[in-house]
Amino acid sequence: MHHHGYAWVGDKKTFDRESLRRPPGPAPADSSDHELRDRYREAVASFPTSGIPPLQTAHWLMKQPSVLRGTWTEPKEAGEWLGLQLAELAPRFACSAERDTHRLVLLVTYAVARLAWGGDVSLGHYLKGTHFHSIALVTCSPNRATTELACPGRPF
After folding, report:
1. Is the pLDDT of residue 142 over 70?
2. Residue 4's pLDDT is what?
3. Where are the beta strands (DSSP E) in 30-94?
4. Which residues, other chains included, contact 127 with Cβ-Cβ below 8 Å and sequence gap of 6+?
């Protein structure tokens, strides 16, 4: 078992577009609907390479390795990365209560414990202005939520 880290900062309007955050479903049965076929092709091409967070945390594993921010075999190491990411962006959090150092330490502690039993961690924060920060740690080989998904990183 190991853990992959993902992070994204972008415009909140982009994050709110659920169609960008869903993996493509089955190909459209009606091939005469050009608009539907074009949207499907776009989803097939863009979902795996896009750093936009998927709706389901485990679906990060469907993304290309290029969107990975790190891989760790130990939950504590993944938690250290999470703590660094949170500390770096905390001054930009829109809500002052979310910047509280004690709260951030508790988030990291909780994340390490969750990863230790094979769970995933997904956090999001509104940033000052119109941006959103999403960060996830996804357990791999296998993932409890989607055991059929292959590891996007190096073989373990």
Report:
1. yes
2. 97
3. 70-72
4. 9, 89, 92, 93, 94, 133
Sheet holding 131-140, edge to edge: 70-72, 2-11, 131-140, 121-126
Quote the pTM value: 0.90
User: Which residue's entry shows tokens 């994050």?
Assistant: 15
Residues 99-116: pLDDT tens digits? Answer: 999 999 999 999 999 999
Nearest to 111 by CA among 147, 139, 87: 139
Cα–Cα distance for residue pair 5/137, rounded to 1 Å: 5
Could you read off the pLDDT of 30-72 as tens digits, one per residue?
777 788 888 788 888 889 999 999 999 999 999 999 999 999 9
pLDDT at 155: 54
∠ Cα 116 118 122 (to 5°): 95
Burial, 148: exposed, middle or buried (Cβ in 10 Å; 0-12, 13-18, 19+)? Answer: exposed
